[in-house]
Design a protein that fits this description.
Elements (H helix, E strand, L loop, with lengths): L17 H14 L8 E2 L1 H8 L3 H14 L2 E2 L6 E3 L4 H25 L2 H19 L3 H18 L3 H10 L1 H30 L3 H25 L9
Antiparallel strand pairs: 1-3, 2-3
Helix pairs in contact: 1-3, 2-3, 4-6, 4-7, 4-8, 4-9, 5-6, 5-8, 6-7, 6-8, 8-9
Amino acid sequence: MPKEMPLRSIEAISRPTVADQVFDELYQNVISLELAPGAKISEAEVAKAMGVSRQPVRDAFYRLSKLGFLEIRPQRATTVSKISESAVLQARFIRTALEIESMRVACERLTEADFRVLEENMTLQEAALNDTNKMVFHHLDDAFHREICERSGVGFIWKLIQENKAHMDRVRFLSLSFASTNAHGDHLKIFEALRHRDADGVTVLIRTHLSAIVEHFRRIRAEHLIYFADEG
């Protein structure tokens, strides 16, 4: 092997592809229920509406189906999946188990610089509450939990959580009409426990925080029954 490879270095530029942009747009529409559970959706219509070819739409559909948002049936209509109670409860269980461990690691590893980032996130959460901007609050909520994982060196945990929480996310979004203030309050308590390196305290707080979805589920299902799968 030559001592010096005759190759130029290439700077990695993080640029969203067309498929990424289609995915992000559809993802937000599913989470916000603009694309309601049970709604039919077609590659051709999405491609025409977004001014793109069908290939990036097909790629985005596949990614959304892997998350549990779309049901793709060959030769039949693709539909937005209805919300599954069993999938919500499973996601809550998985997320609680993983986040408890990530919070314990965070108590040991987070720095003052990390805490400043989390503090800024919570300031933005408060602004979103005041503006009653549910989608912005939802993104900031996710970012709060993601930053804790990534800044603690366990970003892979957030990826595992993301792969399993699609059905839970739509219930979370619906709950923001009455529970966003409580969610923000929970984040403030979690932040303080992390800052005080209180591993046992933050474990109790994250378990309580993530269990709220169970308490809200019956109310949301009663108010939006058409969105939920009939699981007998």
